[in-house]
Structure formats: structure tokens, C-alpha cells
Write a structure and sequence with these properties.
Layout: E1 4-10, H1 17-35, H2 37-42, E2 43-49, H3 53-59
């Protein structure tokens, strides 16, 4: 298996319980992948808290944008013609 690194970034206001649970899930999956040695060699998962423009300026050039999943209806997207 080719090694992959996935990074997630964001922040959730105290009132957004679902967002907080999602962040917790990401961190738990990351912890589990580290605990399993065979998986840890092939998969790295990172969660970067306090997402902002400065962090985005550093992350976006280092990411493979072609692998990003567009969720139509939740972000600006152009329909295929």
C-alpha cells in the first residue's frame, strides 16, 4: 500500500455539537491508526485546529487539490453542462 497522509483542519463553535463530534471522530481514527503499527506505516491522519486564512495559505499549496471532494450544495460549485 502506498503511504498516504490526510489532514483535516477546522474549528467548531461550542454550540455545534455535531461538528465537535466529527472532530473527535477524526482524532480517534488518527489515534487508532497510530496504535496499529502496520497501518501507521501506510496512513497518517492529522487534525489541525483553529483553521484560518494563514493556515490555509500554508496547506493549500501542499495539497493535491484533485483529490478534494466537492460537496455540491455546501460550497460554490459549477454544474456540468
Amino acid at each position: 500500500m502506498t503511504p498516504h497522509t490526510f489532514f483535516f483542519a477546522g474549528k467548531a463553535a461550542p454550540a455545534y455539537a455535531f461538528c465537535q463530534l466529527t472532530i473527535k471522530l477524526i482524532n480517534n481514527v488518527a489515534g487508532t491508526s497510530i496504535a496499529i503499527r502496520l497501518l501507521a506505516a501506510a496512513l497518517k491522519i492529522l487534525f489541525l485546529p483553529e483553521y484560518n486564512v494563514s493556515l490555509a495559505e500554508r496547506l493549500i499549496p501542499a495539497s493535491d487539490v484533485s483529490e478534494q471532494i466537492s460537496t455540491a450544495g455546501y460550497e460554490a460549485s459549477v454544474p456540468a453542462i
